[in-house]
Each structure stands twice: as structure tokens, then as C-alpha cells.
Design goal:
single chain, 323 residues, alpha/beta, 2 domains, seven-stranded mixed sheet, four-stranded parallel sheet, 10 helices, binds 6-O-phosphono-beta-D-fructofuranose
Length: 323
């Protein structure tokens, strides 16, 4: 193997740059040439490539976003798009890819390898932490810290006014951000898609808190909760229990930005090295992950998010501690 390419795909996540840096420098260390692909799979289809040197990744380990840019490519979901990408990759003499993204990214890479014979190694990069085969994804820790900083601020105003706040956090179909940030911020309740939200139970818990004269109430709502987003749940609560002065905050894309935390930088560096050395060593179509602080490799087909379980015991613990 002489030349590999690196790209980022799907939603950006803080720490992706640290991952790119690790891939580029590991490949160069092992005598390979590295090509950067701009804009994820869209750039692969368009041949939006540039040669990367060691200096190309200077001064990026601390930066959020992705220097390679990213996309959620619709074209790459089609056979034509994949065949165009295959042509571009072959013309550029690229023999393997290192891709940083979430489960949609890995699904695309698996199909691409079947159509084109061009193999990839993956690095889990998503704030949602919803991939099987790793305890943590790159960007999750930074997003959590962004959330708790915001919720701590909301707590100040909530307790000054004796208000009830519903705070919506990201995590398309997964409650990891909600659950962990909820524990860390002492939220009065945490609503996640993995556990059925019962409005009556929520109201009971609010009423118990009210009777013991709590000064504020913060309910963290995962955006994918089946009862609806934070605005909808606030509406349903108000309809049945109109005691509190209520406000809703959606933290939104702020959760995807910012300088990566120390943990995310180290995680991205370790996984970047592992995926690149794996590719060089003949591994293909697997994601590098960290489980119990050890690097493991999981076939793309098994990284799917539905295999990851949220620890329901933690939810009960959070409710007990904030009651
Ligand atoms: O997958 C990461 C994520 O931030 C999810 O938490 C969220 O649902 C989604 O991306 C938002 O995507 P977009 O930035 O395309 O609106």
C-alpha cells in the first residue's frame, strides 16, 4: 500500500481534527502518501482531493469542526455516485480509505467496498455516542461538557425564578447525551428515547419536588424522545399540571462545536493511529474502537446504533439522586 486517503463524513464532531492529524502523521511515519478528501463522500465523488503533508495538520489538534469539511451525501447512497467515486479514487491511485464518522458513514463505506473493491477503516466520530464497538465516540465528551456548562447557567436563572425548564439536547435516536449530562447537572428528570416517557409519572415527580419545596426543576429531554421534543413535552405537562412557570431551551448545534476536551483529543489520536495501522496491516471494513481502555476492531456491519444499550439503572440512579 502506497497511498491512502482520509475523509470526515456525517455530522462534524469536536476531535475530528485530532483524528485527521493522527491518520496523516501515522501514515507518513510508515512511509505512505496521504490524500485529503474534502466534504466527505461528496468530495470522493467529485475527486475533491489534495495531497497532505505533516505540516497540513499542524495547529489543528485543539480545533473543533473538521478541516476537511463534511457532508451528508445523498449522491453516495446511489450506485452511480459510488461508481463515480470509484473512478475518482482509482485515477488518484488511492488504495485505501480512513473514514471518520457515524453509522451512516460506515454503512456507506461497507457498500462502497462491495461495489468498488476499495476498502476502508473507520474511526467513530459523532457526538451521539451511539455506535456499537466502542465505549466512547469522538466528540461525545466535548458535547457533554458543552451541555452541562449550559445547564448550569440555566440552573442559576431557574432557581432565581423558581421555574421549571425543559432543556432539549441532541442525540438523534439515542439518549446518551441526555442521560450523562442529566446526571452531571443534577437534572430533576431525564427523558430519553430508550425509555418510554409517561407524562403522568413525570408530573408525579414534579409534584413530589414541589411539596418538598425545591427551588428549581430541570428536565433534560433527548431530541429523539418518543413523547416529542422539549416544546411538545412542556405543552403536554402544562395541559395537565399548570403549576410552574415554565420555559424551554433547545441547546442545538452549539453542542457540536468548540475545542475538543482532553479526552476527545486523546481518544481521536489513539483511534486514528489504530485505524491507520490496521489499514496498513491489511485490516478492512472495520471500525477501531476503545472498550475497557483497549483498542478493538468491529466490522462495519456490527457497529449499527441499534445494538447499543443505554444503562437504565443509571436513569433510576439519576431520579433517586435528584429526588
Ligand atoms: O449525529 C449528530 C447529530 O448532531 C445528532 O445529534 C442530530 O440529530 C443531528 O446530528 C443533526 O444533524 P444536522 O446537523 O444535519 O441537522
Amino acid at each position: 500500500m502506497k497511498r491512502i486517503a482520509v475523509l470526515t463524513s456525517g455530522g462534524d464532531a469536536p476531535g475530528m481534527n485530532a483524528g485527521i492529524r493522527a491518520v496523516v502523521r501515522t501514515a507518513i511515519f510508515h512511509g505512505l502518501e496521504v490524500v485529503g478528501v474534502r466534504r466527505g463522500y461528496d468530495g470522493l465523488i467529485d475527486g475533491d482531493f489534495f495531497s497532505m503533508e505533516s505540516n497540513s495538520v499542524s495547529d489543528i489538534i485543539q480545533r473543533g469542526g473538521t478541516m476537511l469539511k463534511t457532508s451528508r451525501s445523498e449522491r453516495f447512497k446511489t450506485r452511480e455516485g459510488m461508481l463515480d467515486a470509484k473512478r475518482k479514487v482509482n485515477e488518484a491511485g488511492i488504495e485505501g480509505l480512513v473514514i471518520i464518522g457515524g453509522d451512516g458513514t460506515f454503512k456507506g463505506a461497507k457498500e462502497f467496498s462491495e461495489i468498488s473493491g476499495i476498502h476502508s477503516m473507520g474511526i467513530p466520530g459523532t457526538i451521539d455516542n451511539d455506535l456499537f464497538g466502542t465505549d466512547y465516540t469522538i466528540g461525545y465528551d466535548t458535547a457533554l461538557n458543552t451541555v452541562i456548562e449550559a445547564v448550569d447557567k440555566i440552573r442559576d436563572t431557574a432557581s432565581s425564578h423558581h421555574r421549571l425548564f425543559f432543556v432539549e439536547v441532541m442525540g438523534r435516536d439515542a439518549g446518551f447525551i441526555a442521560l450523562t449530562s442529566g446526571i452531571a447537572s443534577g437534572a430533576e428528570d431525564i427523558l430519553i428515547p430508550e425509555s418510554k416517557t409517561k407524562i403522568d409519572d413525570l408530573i408525579k415527580r414534579l409534584d413530589t419536588g414541589r411539596k418538598r419545596d425545591k427551588s428549581s426543576f430541570i428536565i433534560i429531554v433527548a431530541e429523539g424522545d418518543i413523547a416529542g421534543g422539549a416544546f411538545e413535552i412542556a405543552r403536554q405537562v402544562k395541559e395537565k399540571y399548570d403549576y410552574f412557570d415554565t420555559r424551554v431551551t433547545v441547546i442545538g448545534h452549539m453542542q457540536r462545536g468548540g475545542n475538543p476536551t482532553c479526552s476527545d483529543r486523546v481518544l481521536a489520536s489513539r483511534l486514528g493511529v489504530a485505524a491507520t495501522e490496521g489499514l496498513i496491516g491489511g485490516r478492512k471494513n472495520e471500525m477501531a474502537g476503545i472498550v475497557d481502555n483497549k483498542i478493538i476492531f468491529t466490522p462495519f456491519a456490527q457497529t449499527r446504533k441499534h445494538l447499543v444499550n443505554v444503562d437504565e439503572g443509571l436513569l433510576k440512579m439519576a431520579q433517586m439522586l435528584s429526588s
